[in-house]
């Protein structure tokens, strides 16, 4: 079976052992070293490491000091953490439809959704390509809104030469399968020194000096062990991204022209981080998306469906006082994607022959 993801952190062992030998396990110099590396990677002044991508999003929204009823506009086509984080920070969720080009917040739909209580735009850089920051960042600026980027999947992506996470408050995930991993972890990036300080306080129970509480905080700290897992990956990230890029380019060349299949586009001015390689299986294809997934599984190729339903379309959110009463029909572009999107393996551990196999089996399954 060709797996959908392979985690390879063997080169982190020496640094992890250093931490074990040191006996200092809680947030300390390793975390600081990881943060410095991450800030350099995103080209931001500050990086604040936390214990998950979800915590990064919660802390980012909390740091903006919203009032009850204030709204965050985000994508309905995302992982549930985006919505759970908004709710966890006490804010109200609003959704705007996505663009079929990049699967992320559509700037026009977003502008039309802005209301008197809107405080934050939270685009999700889905699959590793940024949203249209050339329109969304100025939109936030013009309307006096904060921009919080859910860049969980977009470590290494950029838009017109600037890295994801450097346009607004950047929120990254270091979960086991993300482009850089610490097992569990997250990072918030910002150029705003005051905001960075607030984030550091929120992360550590609101304490700057022991037992002096400056604000009601939480424990979002990253451990030294987790930071040690991540550090070596920052040094080889460019290489890992190049392997992903190479695999994506080969897949797109090989799959081009397959009837009913749309391969993912890297849009002009953007650098895709290829966290996922996601094709669209259109209504004219010989098989539905789910049939193709089942067929590929039979042929030894793992695939994944991100995401089979819109994020609000689950019982637990129905009637929630801070989630709008919307239906998939309100977001026709996103709703179509839930039926058509299928992610194929693109990870750095794929061999050239694995890529050939994926191309051959997809083409054959779809009658090309
Ligand atoms: C992974 C992910 C998150 C959450 O990150 P965790 O580290 O799992 O908490 C948030 N948003 C998106 C889009 C993600 O893919």
The portion of residues forming beta strands comes to 5-15%
Q: Roughly how much helix do the residues carry, as a percent range?
A: 25-40%
CATH topology of the largest domain: Aspartate Aminotransferase, domain 2
| DSSP strand count | 13
CATH-level-2 architecture of the largest domain: 3-Layer(aba) Sandwich
**Total discrete domains:** 2
Largest sheet: 7 strands, mixed
CATH level-four homologous superfamily name of the largest domain: Type I PLP-dependent aspartate aminotransferase-like (Major domain)
Mean pLDDT: 98
User: Biggest sheet, strands in spatial order?
Assistant: 1-9-8-5-4-2-3
Gyration radius over CA: 20 Å
- Please tally the helical runs, counting DSSP H or I stretches of 4 or more residues: 12
Question: What is the 3D form?
Answer: globular
- For the record, the CATH class of the largest domain is Alpha Beta
Alpha-beta content class: alpha/beta
End-to-end span in angstroms?
22 Å
Molecules bound to protein: pyridoxal-5'-phosphate
> N-to-C SSE series?
HHEHEHEHEHEEEEEHHHEEEHHEH
Low-confidence stretches: none
GO molecular function: transaminase activity
Organism: Amycolatopsis pigmentata
InterPro entries: DegT/StrS_aminotransferase (IPR000653), PyrdxlP-dep_Trfase (IPR015424), PyrdxlP-dep_Trfase_major (IPR015421), PyrdxlP-dep_Trfase_small (IPR015422)
Protein name: DegT/DnrJ/EryC1/StrS family aminotransferase
